[in-house]
Queue: 2 jobs
Job 1
Amino acid sequence: MALTIEEQIKAIEDEIAKTQYNKKTQGHIGLLKAKIARLKMEQEKRRAASGGGAPGYSVKKSGNATIALVGFPSVGKSTLLTKLTDAKSEVASYAFTTVDVIPGIMYHKFAKIQVLDLPGLIRDASKGKGRGREVLAVVRTADLILFVIDVYDTNVEVLMNELYNTGIRLNTRPPNVVITKTDRGGIEVKPTVTMTKMTKEMVADMVAAYGHVNAEVIVREDIDEEQLIDVLTGNRVYLRSVTVVNKVDLVDQAYLDSVMKKLKDHKPLLISANKETGLEELKEAIYRKLDFIHVFLKPQGKEADMDEPMVILGGSTVGDLCDRIHRSFRRNFRYANVWGKSAKFPGQMVGVDHVLSDGDIVTVVVKRGGE
């Protein structure tokens, strides 16, 4: 009798668990991981097609960016939301109080930032425990994750692992690898750098194991197996994160020192949402991590408005700016003129794909009458 997808995944995971990792077995383990990734993608497709799982959370995004509060139950996320924003989240001193997603708006340096208070995550949330899949689906849509950790329970790695297992990569960027399907020739690997973590043969074998028959693989950085799997699946999201330790008013300095030592790699901020300690520093850290830039709008034939900047995320294009101004601007876009760091010369005429820099002045020209 044929094995189910779940049974196939379990069998391969068991094989990986009993295989000692070394140079000789590295290629074999990489192949097994690629097969698991392919099976999991198939599993997700079937789950989506059957409408499986509990109803998800629907949140309309607003503001210049969205941040998600992620933490275990009862760590003070709801109190933090209330203190940071204009929202009122139901707060009580027992677990699982927040049963829906509560949005609020935080204002800082002209930026309007949406903050989402989510139900607490628990171990194995990525496998569906505690409505974890629905919560993590909302987390994937955020621009930044704010880990909220209780001073008495600082195991932030559990939360990070749950996010990792659902395809969220923190404080990193997509691997510089491009896989292009071809008509013939099998799998051809073309590295532009010296590869020390994998061989060309391993890359080719993993790409084939994932289901590609003919493809050109351009490798522009020294990747490992996990990074190659991220490229193969193509469904990873790359998000920035900030970690805070809450309720620091409940412990003494010696205990705090031990917490900071344990979490030194995460460089957490110390706050007390209840006492409103450290919240201004947190707002500034969020603002910096989101890498906002200010651009100034200049109506045609008029002076630029240098008092009220438009706040957009770093790396945004003229098209993104159009979306922020009005939903019709991109549709009716003709061209834009740009003055500033991103322009080759003052008043350069650019299209929607032009990437803007901090301090740029922009005139957007649209079709008259929305023609």
Job 2
Amino acid sequence: MPESERVRSRLKTPRAAAIAGIAFSALFVTAFSLLRTYVPSDPGESGEWLKTSTASVNFALNLIPFAGIAFIWFVGALRDRLGALEDRFFATVFLGSSLLFLATLFISAAAIGAIILTFATESAKSMNSTVFHFARTLAYNIGNIYMVKMAGVFMISTSTVIIYTRIAPRWTSLLGFGLALLLLFASSYFSWVFVAFPLWILLISVCFLVDEFHQRSRDAKP
């Protein structure tokens, strides 16, 4: 086998999707936990966290771009794993929801970052301004409404693809449907429910690694 074909074969293994999924899950859960801990969920809050927690929030914001890169890699590796089995309709929903999820994630993070930079230059004046409350509400609406909903759509489309192609155990798709419904209809009541999204991707990634391990074990047998 030519070297170029061997390289492409390695890239098409489930390992690429699994590693990317695990990296995304670890980075996103860390960033999400820090933001949920230090930034109040109430968009009408007074902004006291700007005085004491900007270092932790900035650290979380710096993790988000790397989480996004890992998520793009996960989606690309997953599509490559599907190959000819990919359906055009679900592929469009799958890819579209993943890109919209990333866009809303980055916009929400950028809004919070803008609030921190504005506070650094304007100090206490910015906390009582209309601009502060607008930016705070914008970040909340994008992150807690649009981003969460796009993540739910991504889970539904991915779970449907799993059922038809069997690239992962069937029970992961059933779990995905259930968690997606929680994101779509219950995220407004339970702010921490969104952590189910990266943990579900982590679960699928682990399944990919286990499947590859079993496949290699079977291939190694005489």
